[in-house]
């Protein structure tokens, strides 16, 4: 499970960097565990939920364990859209 979560962190970081090379999402791979704090505001979190169906906790916490190889690209698109 740890290896899968590390892989999803790496995949999300790479996907975001391809879409927005000037954004620094290195914290995704430096943090550990099932969740990651994104630093997104409540307004950005609401935009993700309402516009993309991507759910984060109100404080911007993302459940990395919920990422899969099938949805990581869509989540990256959503994150970049609210930056």
Supply the number of helical segments.
Answer: 4
Distance between the termini: 30 Å
Q: How much is the radius of gyration in Å?
A: 12 Å
Beta fraction: 5-15%
Q: Can you walk me through this structure?
A:
The chain is mainly alpha-helical and 83 residues long. It has one domain: Alpha-Beta Complex (Aspartate Aminotransferase, domain 1), CATH 3.90.1150.10. The protein has 4 helices and 2 strands; from the N terminus they run ααβαβα. The protein has helices at residues 2-19, 27-30, 42-52, 72-81, and strands spanning 35-37, 61-63. The protein has a two-stranded antiparallel sheet with strand order 1-2. The longest helix has 18 residues, at 2-19. The protein is globular. The model has no long low-confidence stretch (mean pLDDT 95).
Topology:
Layout: H1 2-19, H2 27-30, E1 35-37, H3 42-52, E2 61-63, H4 72-81
Short account of what is shown:
With 83 residues, the chain is mainly alpha-helical. The chain contains 4 helices and 2 strands, in the order H-H-E-H-E-H.
From the structure above, extract its key features.
83 residues; Aspartate Aminotransferase, domain 1; mainly alpha; 52% helix; two-stranded antiparallel ribbon
